[in-house]
Amino acid sequence: MKVPKGFLFSTAQGSFKYQDRDDLALIYAPEGAVPAGVFTQNVFQAAPVLVAKKHISQCNLINAILINAGQANACTGEKGIQDCEETLRLLSKTLEISPEFILPASTGVIGEFFDLKKWEKAILELRENLGKVDVGKVARAIMTTDKYPKLVSKCLTLDNKEVHLLGLAKGAGMIAPNMATMLGFILCDAEVDRSWWQSCLVEAVETSFNRICVDGDTSTNDTVLALSSGKVKGSFCEDDLYRLKKAVKEICFELARLIVQDGEGASKIIKLTIKKAKTRQDARNIATTIATSPLVKTAFFGEDPNWGRIVAALGRSNASFDPQKIRLFFGDIEVFGCGVAKLEDIDVWLQGYMQKKELDLVIDLGAGEEEYFILFSDLTFDYVKLNGSYRS
Amino acid sequence: MKVPKGFLFSTAQGSFKYQDRDDLALIYAPEGAVPAGVFTQNVFQAAPVLVAKKHISQCNLINAILINAGQANACTGEKGIQDCEETLRLLSKTLEISPEFILPASTGVIGEFFDLKKWEKAILELRENLGKVDVGKVARAIMTTDKYPKLVSKCLTLDNKEVHLLGLAKGAGMIAPNMATMLGFILCDAEVDRSWWQSCLVEAVETSFNRICVDGDTSTNDTVLALSSGKVKGSFCEDDLYRLKKAVKEICFELARLIVQDGEGASKIIKLTIKKAKTRQDARNIATTIATSPLVKTAFFGEDPNWGRIVAALGRSNASFDPQKIRLFFGDIEVFGCGVAKLEDIDVWLQGYMQKKELDLVIDLGAGEEEYFILFSDLTFDYVKLNGSYRS
């Protein structure tokens, strides 16, 4: 896997929560990189989110992202902010950069305070390992309940130069016993304009990380950061920029898909597309209502083509449509339309289809021109097991 | 259990879905009763809902409620309406009353059509059994995935006369493999004014059936009907009416509580109270967001005092509050306030409390004067098992 130029990586064992693996990671751009960031909309924002937002708004270039797994540093008040800043100060000293040029990202149990002694030790180890580990180790160090690391790369030729993109993410629902936490990092080596880079990330997040649903719960820590080192300089034309944006979108989408695939306990990925909605808001409401319905999610787990549950969720979504015009498809097969069932032997027709790991669900509202999709996982025994178990 | 005067009951075996039990029930008021009704808000409304709404709007007195379990007669289009009307016609012939004076209520699998031959036979049996069965048999006949029948009665003295109230309900989440379906019936023998009776039911539903959450899914069939036979005549004073309304509310609340207790797979009932909200809408949004969060629900199943998940759900509820002013209590114990954890050893403090079957959760928003409560169940293995299994 080719890595964008201008970045070094490191990991260390902080033992914040996990005892037998690296749980601290560093993405380092010695000569700085153009940053972009998208953060959780939750009212309760974790200390690292508040600090990262501040730094990203103040600095044109960023040198490092410091990520820990196991502790979210959320709901920790003023002390949480101070602790976060202290970890950046420790890193800034050892790297000889300003703390403002570092973005923090944390994931894990909320409400707990950092043990700064552990951080001191781990940051020394981070310094020692700098440049000696590959990005795969970073992807593994940021994992919490993830079953596997999530890493995607892309290479494209712009203005006759090779540009590399790399994305890594963590997320699987939530960390036991705490909350949904997804972190995503996109690295690139093209020379980009800062505001274009930010809009590029915002657009990519909108059609990827904003379109996935494991359990409908958002967290205090959700963060997606993008850094572009500018090592590949060029006079990129409009078409180049279009292709670069497309590549960022594809990387984010693939990472998002991997998160749903790895969703806690998930056995299926369902892509739900809402077509011909009157408004985009309607389409989104319907998609979210269906994707978070426990009845719909358990039916997919049971491989039961239970369209009644989907129609019922649709009916309580507060969207505007004519029930008589609704058409519902499993794959290419229409199961419901004009207010009634379209198939008599639905179980026979759909048995094979329901056994697939990735399914397509399409709802045509016949009400307008808007379209929206969402990827969601099913609700399984393992979900309950993972999230019903005691903290340990 | 004393039954309000003026009502007769019957049940029969229709074999609509269940083969070894009664699944058709009749509540019969030979001399008529004043009706009131509250129905599902779902856009997809089942045939019996549409027909019952029509009849209730056209008739001042109602003679009968005809209820079947196993088939919802929902998403069945015009044929579903005709079938529903045909069942009423069959009953009206045998009882020698007008079909308009009968209210239908169905619960069960959606999308399937009635087999009218089965209905013909079952309605004859219903006629034969009329007056020979007690109301307990009716409560059992309307069950679907319910583990037990739900029946509550009350007696009060108004204007020196004994007034009897009786309520029965079915609901446990949804019928496998279909949707949440709750039906409730309140019977009374006091002489009441029709519009007062309707407002009394609306108020009672608002603080009972509208305050419960098993999985957040509403159905095409939800129906609560109240009939008062007027057999106990009197000049009820304002205080009498106040007490009668209070009794209807208590009956509905107790039935609602029984539904949550019997919630599919439920092992706990949690009463969540939102205090000092700026607006009622805020309080309701917060209560619903928390009560439907899979993370919160699985934590209660795991007896884990996982306040981080509750705070995270609160933070995505779109309600207006100052995060610093939030106080969160498990029973009397404050676990979160001023933005930070209030207890260091929360597991020690709350271990005993979390093992209770009924828990109290209180959130003080410190933002205003509005208050709202909701009763919800936890999310368990058995929920997934019940709802993930194939139709059979």
TrEMBL record, chains A, B:
Compartments where located: Cytoplasm
GO terms for cellular component: cytoplasm
Main localization, broad class: cytoplasm
Residues annotated to bind substrate: 144, 170, 181, 264, 387, 392
GO biological process annotation, one example: L-arginine biosynthetic process
InterPro entries the UniProt entry points to: Arg_biosynth_ArgJ, ArgJ-like_dom_sf, ArgJ_beta_C
Keywords recorded for this protein, A-Z: Acyltransferase, Amino-acid biosynthesis, Arginine biosynthesis, Autocatalytic cleavage, Cytoplasm, Multifunctional enzyme, Transferase
Catalytic activity: L-glutamate + acetyl-CoA = N-acetyl-L-glutamate + CoA + H(+); N(2)-acetyl-L-ornithine + L-glutamate = N-acetyl-L-glutamate + L-ornithine
Residues the record marks as site: Cleavage: 180-181
Active site: 181
Site (Involved in the stabilization of negative charge on the oxyanion by the formation of the oxyanion hole): 107-108
Source species, domain of life: Bacteria
Protein EC: 2.3.1.35, 2.3.1.1
Self-association state and partner proteins as the record states: Heterotetramer of two alpha and two beta chains.
Function description: Catalyzes two activities which are involved in the cyclic version of arginine biosynthesis: the synthesis of N-acetylglutamate from glutamate and acetyl-CoA as the acetyl donor, and of ornithine by transacetylation between N(2)-acetylornithine and glutamate.
Record's protein name: Arginine biosynthesis bifunctional protein ArgJ
Gene source species: Desulfonauticus submarinus
